[in-house]
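Design job #97: recover the sequence.
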């Protein structure tokens, strides 16, 4: 075996979570190695960012670069066949009037910006470096990886950060990954050129189309293309009996409003992708000498575009935890307990709405938004990712939840049928066959 090179922190994965924490730890003066199995730029789905990301880009010093490659996103549009209408909601309608916009970005562009920036800040950033093994012990870990030429390299690290995305490197080895029993969905997606685009600030809005098997996203990008994806209950994708491209076209036809926007569009490179059964969490996210960030720890439905924000935000907190582990180990047990609670907060707050977004009562709330007790402002703040900075939205969100339960009780038959339908839909039907499975770092 090769000689093990020494470092303070080894980061598995060079996406938003990994690159963010690598940057912050390098700024602390740590010897940081970040290993990415692919080469940037590389394709990833997950293009829609939240206004709360802006402060994180500012703190990292990459905002101008992100702005150059992004399409300004000022809000979201919801389209419901059942209601026969659409509604646009702007982030500026939220509680914090400073959180006005974010960007839609090609993840290949964003991830490369963050990765290169980490290298500029002092991290050793390796591409084409696939981690094969992490052997933990009381003093740290020995990491073994292979390069593109099959050469083997080893590192001896005092701490390991798993930011491997949906590869869930550490969680798989620790058997800590658990499928979410309350949510289970699959997705198919592609990019289109010459698709319809709105005018003015509405051009960059993400659009959510509900249809009978789930919902679609419609994300205009700065290069003129549009990302389109269908998030469906697993039973629907399991019913596929034709090539994926044809199945995707048939699925799009189920939403007349979406089909109209794509009537003159062409699928880029004839490429359609699918991924299945992707909602999960971990039993824990930290150990004495490791932590798991972003999708390496948990992944929830992307309807509110929370993935990149949660990964990056938690990386800031994770950098503090690593510093505690390396510099003040006697304080680590309390810091770990606090971090475990913190890592669950964001997914929990988003998930309450995600689990109910297909419920007819919640759809009514989105399609006919009202603002008693500032509930609309609080909801828009949540959709902007404003859940960690002390904005006083929580009382209003509790009022909104109370309203939801009250309206559901007024329509018992509809609510009961929706509950039964969801219970059937979340059943785990096993892995899909024949799809291109993509991880989201």
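Job complete. Output follows.
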């Amino acid at each position: 075996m090769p000689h093990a090179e020494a470092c303070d922190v080894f980061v598995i994965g060079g996406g938003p979570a990994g690159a963010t924490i690598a940057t912050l730890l390098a700024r602390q003066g740590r010897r940081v190695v970040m290993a990415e199995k692919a080469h940037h730029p590389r394709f990833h789905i997950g293009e829609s960012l939240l206004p709360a990301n802006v402060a994180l880009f500012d703190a990292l010093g990459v905002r101008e670069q992100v702005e150059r490659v992004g399409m300004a996103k000022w809000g979201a549009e919801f389209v419901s066949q059942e209601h026969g209408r659409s509604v646009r909601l702007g982030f500026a309608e939220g509680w914090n009037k400073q959180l006005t916009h974010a960007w839609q970005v090609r993840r290949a562009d964003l991830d490369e910006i963050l990765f290169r920036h980490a290298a500029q800040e002092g991290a050793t950033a390796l591409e084409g470096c696939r981690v094969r093994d992490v052997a933990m012990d009381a003093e740290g870990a020995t990491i073994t990886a292979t390069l593109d030429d099959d050469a083997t390299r080893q590192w001896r690290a005092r701490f390991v950060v798993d930011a491997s995305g949906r590869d869930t490197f550490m969680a798989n080895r620790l058997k800590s990954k658990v499928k979410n029993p309350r949510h289970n969905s699959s997705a198919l997606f592609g990019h289109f050129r010459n698709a319809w685009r709105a005018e003015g600030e509405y051009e960059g809005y993400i659009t959510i189309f509900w249809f009978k098997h789930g919902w679609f996203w419609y994300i205009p990008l700065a290069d003129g293309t549009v990302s389109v994806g269908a998030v469906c209950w697993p039973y629907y994708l399991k019913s596929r009996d034709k090539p994926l491209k044809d199945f995707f076209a048939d699925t799009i036809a189920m939403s007349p409003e979406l089909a109209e926007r794509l009537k003159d569009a062409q699928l880029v490179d004839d490429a359609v992708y699918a991924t299945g059964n992707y909602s999960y969490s971990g039993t824990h996210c930290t150990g004495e000498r490791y932590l798991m960030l972003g999708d390496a720890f948990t992944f929830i439905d992307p309807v509110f575009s929370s993935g990149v924000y949660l990964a990056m935000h938690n990386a800031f907190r994770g950098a503090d935890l690593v510093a505690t582990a390396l510099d003040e180990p006697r304080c680590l047990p309390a810091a770990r307990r606090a971090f475990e609670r913190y890592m669950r907060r964001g997914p929990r707050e988003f998930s309450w709405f995600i689990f109910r977004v297909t419920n007819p009562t919640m759809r009514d709330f989105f399609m006919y938004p009202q603002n008693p007790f500032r509930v609309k402002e609080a909801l828009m703040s949540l959709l902007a990712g404003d859940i960690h900075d002390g904005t006083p939205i929580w009382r209003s969100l509790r009022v909104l939840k109370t309203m939801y339960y009250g309206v559901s009780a007024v329509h018992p038959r509809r609510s009961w049928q929706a509950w039964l339908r969801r219970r059937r839909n979340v059943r785990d039907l096993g892995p899909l066959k024949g799809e291109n499975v993509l991880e989201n770092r």
